[in-house]
Amino acid sequence: MLRVIIADDHPIVRIGQKVVIEANGRCKVVAEADGPDQLLALVDSTPCDILVTDFAMPGNQQADGYGLLGLMRRRHPDLPVILVTMFANVATLRESFAQGARAILAKSASARELPLAIAAVSEGRTFVSECLRAQLAEAGTGNQQAVPQLSGKEREVVRMLASGMTVSQIAARVNRSISTISKQKSTAMTRLCISTDVDLFAYARAAGMVP
Predict the structure, then answer these.
(1) Residue 165 needs a FRET pair 20 to 30 A away by CA distance; which of 22, 42, 59, 134 works?
(2) What positions does the domain HTH luxR-type occupy (predicted)?
(3) End-to-end Cα, the chain, rounded Å
């Protein structure tokens, strides 16, 4: 019997995941967490074989997203982590694998694919949702663990955009032209395989660029 801990800040999501996980009779949900603080406490105190966690959850002491993944990897390196995310872009996929995730599911497909992901990680394999695999293929990346690299100026622009500044305000702040800032923003989004400002801001938050 595989012991599973699940974490999501929405109770209805946890209820659905528990039903799906326990349906085949080979897995048991041994604990549930509603945020990163409770999750880390549970993992430290509750023996388990697999962790299924949301990517973005509010926490008072511990960070979510990549920070949580990195901490889990350091504290429990042998615990397979299945990440469930609504931030379905290539940048998130690459960085999440680099930070130790063993499987990544799109929230829209998590119920259907969760048993497949559990089976994969329990056998030492990785798993990616079908819709996310398509994005990886379209991006032309054969290496899921390759982390996109931004230049220092591109990272600076992304950070300031995510903190609420406009392109014009950034240009005035760093003494560059508006067209230069716009180009750096566009180049950063291309490198990250991100197409919308919402995804760009989500990436910046998850990457620890902004609180």
Answers:
(1) 59
(2) 143-208
(3) 39
Q: Which helix (H) or strand (E) holds 144?
A: none
Indicate if 97 and 57 belong to the same structural domain.
yes
Amino acid at 135: Q
The CA radius of gyration of the chain, in Å to the nearest whole number, is 18
Does one domain contain both 80 and 182?
no
The pLDDT tens digits along the chain (211 residues) read: 999 999 999 999 999 999 999 998 999 999 999 999 999 999 999 999 999 999 888 877 777 788 889 889 999 999 999 998 876 667 777 788 888 899 998 877 777 799 999 999 999 999 988 877 766 666 554 444 445 578 889 989 999 998 999 999 999 999 999 999 999 999 888 777 676 787 788 778 777 787 6
Question: What predicted TM-score, i.e. pTM, was given to this entire model?
Answer: 0.68
Looking at the structure, do residues 96 and 197 belong to the same domain, yes or no? Answer: no
Q: Are residues 157 and 198 in the same domain?
A: yes
For the chain, how many structural domains are there in total? Answer: 2
- Verify that 68 and 170 share a domain, yes or no: no
CA distance 50 to 81: 6
Which residues constitute the domain of residue 174?
Answer: 152-206
Question: How many angstroms separate the CA atoms of 189 and 158, rounded?
Answer: 9
Residues 114 and 17 sit within 8 Å (Cβ to Cβ)? yes
CATH number at residue 157: 1.10.10.10
Counting beta carbons within 10 angstroms of the beta carbon of residue 65, is it exposed (0 to 12), middle (13 to 18) or buried (19 or more)? buried
